[in-house]
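Q: I'm writing up a methods section and want to include an example of the input and output format. Could you take the sequence below and give the corresponding predicted structure tokens, formatted cleanly so I can copy it straight into the document?
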Amino acid sequence: MPAPRTRIRLIEPADAAPIAAHRARDAEAFRRWEPEQPAALRTEAGQAERIDRLLAGHRAGTCWPGVVLAEGEVVGQVTVSGILPQPHLRRAALGYWIATTAQRRGHAGRAVALALRLMTDELALHRAEASTNLDNLPSQHVLRRNGFTPYGVAHSAILLDGVWQDSLLWERVLDTE
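A: Here is the clean output for your methods example:
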């Protein structure tokens, strides 16, 4: 059976319901990888407010918030954030998640590849950065497959379950200009 087609597109207000459903169902599964989120983010109204903020950031040029689609259904998000478009910087951070119901089908890897193309072609960025928990081997595999290399450890960088954890820092140069 062929893998479902993966696409990314800019997030829309109508995405609030499917994102909220994924986040509510997957809250426990993501607990080891993400900081605790307000309960409101597991509701459609909470996601609608979040999407409004993300789109305001997009209009300001500071982020590109996207959804990951498999056969037209929202199965996750990919976000380019902290965009620094100045000629001497031209970099941003890349983050992503895939709903547990759609994991292990290649969606994360394809979404990251599509986001890297967008960062190069549409956003004219030179450098992509990402971070993972030290033990998040699946995410590290996705980044390695997409040409990222680790370049350091940020000690005590993220508070997860009440404990400060280290993060592995990743980079990829997008062009050679």
